[in-house]
Amino acid sequence: MKVGKHRRAVTAAAMLLSGALALTACGGDDGDGDGGKDGKDKSNSQSSADKAAAEESSDARITIDPKDGESGASINSGGKVAVKDGKLTDVTMTAAQSGTEIPGEIAGDGTSWKPTGALERATRYVIKAVAEDGDGREAHETSTFTTVSPENSFIGYFTPDDGKTVGVGMPVSINFDKPVTNKKEVQSAIKVDTTSGQQVVGHWFSDTRIDFRPEDYWKSGSKVTVDLALDGVDAAEGVTGVQDKEFSFNVGRSQVSTVDAESKKMTVVRDGKTVKTVQISAGNAENPTYNGEMVISEKYKETRMNGATVGFTDDDGKGEYDIKDVPHAMRLSTSGTFIHGNYWGADSIFGSVNTSHGCVGLNDVKGAGDSKQDGAWFYENSMIGDVVIVKNSPDKEIKPDNGLNGWNMSWSEWQAGSAA
Questions:
Q1: What is the tally of structural domains in the chain?
Q2: pLDDT tens readout for residues 303-322
């Protein structure tokens, strides 16, 4: 690393000063009358060296965050460089082990530098910075620090995705990769705002999951913005957040479809008007469909459904069913409830008999290629976040945490699960 003029000057001055002190301590004045004259000459020489060193020293003062030797540094804010009374001329940041240089930018006014992206966890970095003052004198600063490890940090995985347009029932759902004991601090660091002005409250389903929603469905046409300001927030002892992420999504038209398992019909209501009534086949007597409000969380034009994955097995341990090309499938629960097309059932079952293992079936064809089928129509006219309500089924109401189905709690119950 290049050594600046001021460092060489300061080093020279320190050596001269050290020599002067050593002579005074060992020799002293021998009383022959020459000590005063010799001492004066030496003093003047030292004074001149000190003055020269001071004149050579740069006025620029560099600071690096984190400080040299720090561990557990943030992956979002670590590596920032600033200078006073000068401008940065060169900053290099490298990963110590691999030697990979980290891209960054000096600000337009030359007073700061920062990496252009997030750093890696559990990585040691070295920053070397050079700045000049108004007279062109250089200042140098170096810092070596280590970012927080995965074992000592946490992040949240969220839905819906940034920029998506979703149905009115879509909650903000965040799942953390570490248990959270400081729920109040973590929840307070998450801000959810909506252009509709609706009050939004968080509810903890577990130590690793919190969902946010308003009292009633989101207003159509509104925009929801989420700020995960978790960087530096302690989730538990020895576990610190590393996220500083903002995302938003748009709320589309309102569509709520009500499945009546008794009449075996589904009524699709969009923006308050009935747009279609569809004949369905719900869960049979042994495997009835859950009642309650459910939110579409995934969509597949075709997917495989194997009974063994949800506990429906025969005496040999094989799935009671294994259909590799179920058309127009939309997930309603984590436990395996779907509303989907059914091509293997006779046309006569729809609207007349419940035959499924708990899903809601719509008439369809193999290959998902006929747009005139009820399964295809509903798939094309539904979006993630739309609500499907099932009623009059002999089964119990679905649990609120089984999927994105927190609407099955009263507002007072929902608020009681808030830690903020």
A1: 4
A2: 988 765 555 555 665 556 57
